[in-house]
Amino acid sequence: MTVVGDARRGRADRAAAPAGQSGTRGAVLALARVEALRLLRHPAMLGALAGYLALWGYALATGDAANRYPVLQDSSRHIQLPTLLLAAGTLLAADFGVLRAVRNGVEPVYEVLVVGARGRTLAHLLAVLPAALLCAGLSLARIGYLAAKPGAVGTVQWLEVATGPAVVLLAGVLGVLLARLFPAPAAASLALALLAVFTFIAAVQNTAGWRWLAVVAIEDEFVQPLPSALVGRPAGLHLLWLTGLTVLLAACALLRGRPGAAPEPPRRGTRPLWACAAVAAAVAVVAGALQMRPLPDSVVRARADVTEHPAAGQQCVTRKGVTYCAFPEFKGRVTEWDGVVRGVLARTPDAVADARYSVRQRIFRDGIEAHANKPLPYTAWDADDRREGTPGAVPVGTWWSAGDAGQDAESDAVAEFSALFAYRVVTGTLPREEGGTTVCGARAVLTLWLAGQATDDSEAALKDLTGRTTGGLSLLVLESSSGLDFDARERELALKLLDGPSDRIGERVKASWRELTATGTTTDRAAELLGVRAPAQVPAGERACA
Predict the structure, then answer these.
(1) Are the C-beta atoms of 480 and 450 separated by less than 8 Å?
(2) pLDDT digits over 109-135, tens only?
(3) What pTM was estimated for this model as a whole?
(4) Which helix (H) or strand (E) holds 540?
(5) Which pairs with CB-CB distance under 8 Å and at least 24 residues apart come from 186-193?
């Protein structure tokens, strides 16, 4: 009773005193070290860390084929998502740490300690820093692991990498403030649920400017990656916005003092905190508003120019008569493209294999939305290629995957390029018709077989695509309205050939090349030339070819 009475008598003076007079700096730092260890050992934090490591560990255990060809400017933001687990664990652990004294009923007794209410709050805020540093270490390890992969291309965006630790720091500070405002653990759980719902809605609305008000801003992952100079994400403003919020919430927590107390009014001891809160609020408001602005006109113009005239900003290399042109950040993809090209040409006669071919990387998107069902700018592309001495260049996008290991779009990109190059070799042309070019008869069978057998990845990607479609098969060029269409019968025969001995079939292809590439050669004749049984005919109404 005496201790509690002393606490009550001294409460007003301690609340009014500056943080430096509530206890020595050493005592605050000592308490911060203890609380940091407790926070890192809290079950919520350990569970979140286990979940983060489990996601990464599973990928490593299974070979991590989905990340074999990362685009680092995109990976820099992708690694933000797993850090949300750490942010959730930090929020709960920080909140429960502050509420420990309330749960144990010793909050009044703490008033007689050297470190007062504001000093203890400061210690809890400082205790969040190791969690943010842990997240920073994991983020650096993750992006370093991806950047070290042989198939990695692009440029690391360090402001995007820093977003994860900033979110964890913000979450921890929010947990401390919630504990000071609402001395009940349910408040943190409710706040976490509301943040999760808002983040999910923002992820669904991935083209809306207000999505930047979420802790992480999700992009439309169904459009092809861009060179880093064309990305146009306000990552710096977003990081500044998170920083402003963090400082504002920390100042509010310090002004709150102990649980149940009203915020302290501006006076000599608290004026610096109020000033800090005002500046942080202004920074958060300004940065939050600026980050929601539309894509800058300069980026829009640059995207349009690169879409129609990519050659000016690309680097080219020639390998065995084939010229490959790519954006500088993506030139590492030439090895994968060349593997497909060599696989296709290896099954052709020498005269065909020794001909000159060109491959040019292209993008086909405006703003952040794909040009679905819109025609390709072939007129501009043809003029660009003629100027650069690469007429008839086969287009290839910025996606790539280890066979069917990536998402559908990345896998389809491998099948798409393989089929386009095979079609270029078989016919000497590229698909130009809006709405798709229908490939019929022996040409269709040969194109699909050449594309599939080129590499293990191209075969896996083609089979994955056919497994997700029924009837015929369509391969769109860069998600446009142009592409290659194949009837079901030709597709079935090509898949049957892929399951056969490639060397034997390849010899038959070389021996019958002229007839197989003729426009009038039928599917039945192709099956006969290649030594397999032709699939059954399909009703006339179910095929595009006569």
Answers:
(1) no
(2) 566 566 677 888 999 999 999 999 999
(3) 0.87
(4) none
(5) 187/95, 188/91, 188/92, 188/95, 188/96, 189/92, 191/91, 192/88, 192/91, 192/92
